[in-house]
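ARCHIVE CARD
Drawer: 12
Card no.: 0347
Subject: one protein chain, sequence and derived structure
Cross-reference: see card 0346
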Amino acid sequence: MDITKLERNIKAKNALIGVMGMGYVGLPLARTFGGAGFRTLCFDVDPSKVRMLNAGKSYIKHIPNSEIRTLIRSKRFRATSNMRELSKPDAIIICVPTPLSKTRDPDMSFVESTAHAIAKTLRSGQLVALESTTYPGTTRELIKPILEKGSGLKAGRDFFLAYSPEREDPGRTDYSTETIPKLVGGHDPKSRRLAMALYSNAIKDAVPVDSCEIAEAAKIVENVYRCVNIAMVNELKILFDKMGIDVWKVIDAAKTKPFGYSAFYPGPGLGGHCIPIDPFYLTWKARQYGEPTRFIELAGEINTDMPEYVINRLALALNSHKKPLFESKILVLGLAYKKDVDDIRESPSIELIELLRKHGSKVDYNDPHVPKTHQMREHDLRMKSVPLTPGSLKKYDAVLIATDHSDYDYDMIVKHSKLIIDTRNATAKVRNGRKKIVKA
């Protein structure tokens, strides 16, 4: 297959880009390609998302409605649930979830079903790129056979195949989709060449690597690095608390060293779609080679245990106020997995709420970015954010700060609360009422 025609169309921005999965990765990517001058066709199996997008409405906080409407008016953005339209794009980018199963094995069902849908209409000359975070070998061992068997075409000859891991970090203001360097690995040299042409025409810095496997492994390494280091400071938090040392002050002191140290911070557990999940894709793959991944598994164990540690700290603090955890009224501040976002995927706040309910506590939550919960694959809290006022705070036996949103007035919260359990060092600058505050 001659690639020059597709390459010319990409460079001239005449190519139609298909993005599959309109979540926290796919929608920002579609916006980026549309903003760069490409026409984008956005696929999602959720009809409600499709309706909202075509009406110019965004359901992701950091993507304003105005940007979607601008793209629609310029005829560079359309959403659809009709998978038969997959024959239209010149390049198809897969941005679907890769969760874990209940046994902590990779759940590749979303990737597989997407690949099967593409295979039904795959035509000669199309480029398919996977962005979902996964184990090394996925593109070549899983995606390629599905596409080839379903279409009768051959990768590298009739169609082109690449892997370019997403590096989204919702809530960041210093980097965006178009400015985060983009790793690009191809199934073969032609595929990499086309994928580089595609991404370099929408993203500031596209970085070629030798293979799909290197790109896949690099993304896993990035998240393993964070997972292990967060586990270390979580473990140190528990130790230093017993020693009467404030781990947050230790980290502030250590980070004054200008080399050889990067600051990581403890918390009530890991959240988001990457760090709690992706390292276990590598542990699963490692078992195929008979190799243990002790660091990763220990880090996962420590981070997974943090919600229980927080609840134990809360129970001890209530006991000191002659209150049992059972039937105590607890307000959880922050449902999102990190500050100033509306993303609740794998949020430790959800685990905290479920543990509190299990212990018989009466639980409410407040989050200015998450007005109500929605049903998730593993959880359905069925809750709404309650008002946060001086009067409302006084009715709770304890306030548990799980997410340190910038919107919160921590002086007011401490002043009007009976007891504060702070898992994020959010109250560090509060001067009055410090006897009410317990770090956890």
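Annotation on reverse: Residues 212-242 form the longest helix (31 residues). The mean pLDDT is 94.
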